[in-house]
Task: structure prediction
Amino acid sequence: MDRDVCNRASRKPILAVMRSFTSDDRASGPRRKTTRHDDSPKSLYDHANSFFLSVIGVADDGHILSPEKTENQRDRQVLAQLIAIVEPEQASKLSGELLEEFGSIGRMLGASEAAMHRVLGGNETVVNLLKATEKLTLAKLRNDLPRKLISATDQRLLNYLRGSIGFRASEMMRILFLDSAHYLLNDEEFGEGSPRRIYVQPRNILKRALELDASGIIIAHNHPGGNLTPSDSDIEFTRSLKALCQELDICLHDHIIISNDRWISLRKLKLI
Result:
C-alpha cells in the first residue's frame, strides 16, 4: 500500500455528513462493470473432542471445490458432532434444522442469538455453544492476521473480514486502523445496520483514528445479498472520507466490499 497513492487527489474541505449504503441504490440506475473476485469457500475443520473451527479459504481457479450436496452433508455431520457435546440425542435433528434455516455454518454462526433461539426453541445451552464457537473462530482468524498489513487484499485479511462480517444478515462496516509502518493498531465495527442499509458518520471514524494516532485506515463493509456492485452511496462515501482523511494526513488505503464468498476492492476498481 504505497502512501503516495493516498496523496494524489487534490485537497479540499468536505463537510462530514451521514452517509448510507442502500440496496435501493444498487437496484437503480446504470450498472457499473465491476471485477468480481470469486473466492471459493472451503473449510478446515478441527473438531477434536470439543470444538471445531470453520475457516474460509480460497481456490485459485475460483470454482466451488465440492458439490453443494456433499458440502451440505459434511457441514451437517460436523455441526452435529459439535452439538452432540451438549445435546447428544438431539444433535442430528438440530443440525439439520439450523442448516435448513441458515443455509451454511458461516451464516448460522453469524446469526443473532434471537434467530438461533427461534430455530432451536429456546435451547440456551446449544445457543451458548454456537456463539462461543463463533468467538473462537473469529479469534483464530484474527490471530492469523499479519501484524504488518502490506496489502489491503492480503488473503488472511480477507478471510478475517469474511468471517467477521461476510455472513452477516445486516450490513456492517469494519475499520482497521494502521500506524505509519502499516502495523495494525486496532479494528472495530462501525455503524448501525439493517439488511438494506448502514448508517456511518465519517467524523466518528476520523475521531477514533485520531484517538489511536492512526496514520492509515482500511474500511470494509458487507453486502448481504451477494451483489458486490458498489452503489453511488458507496463510492460517494468513500471519496468523501478519503478527502477528509487527507486533511488530517491519514491514508485511506482501500475500501473492501465483501460477501460470504466474494470481494471487491474500490482501489483495484480505480474508484478511489
User: Anything to note?
Assistant: The chain has a mean pLDDT of 77.
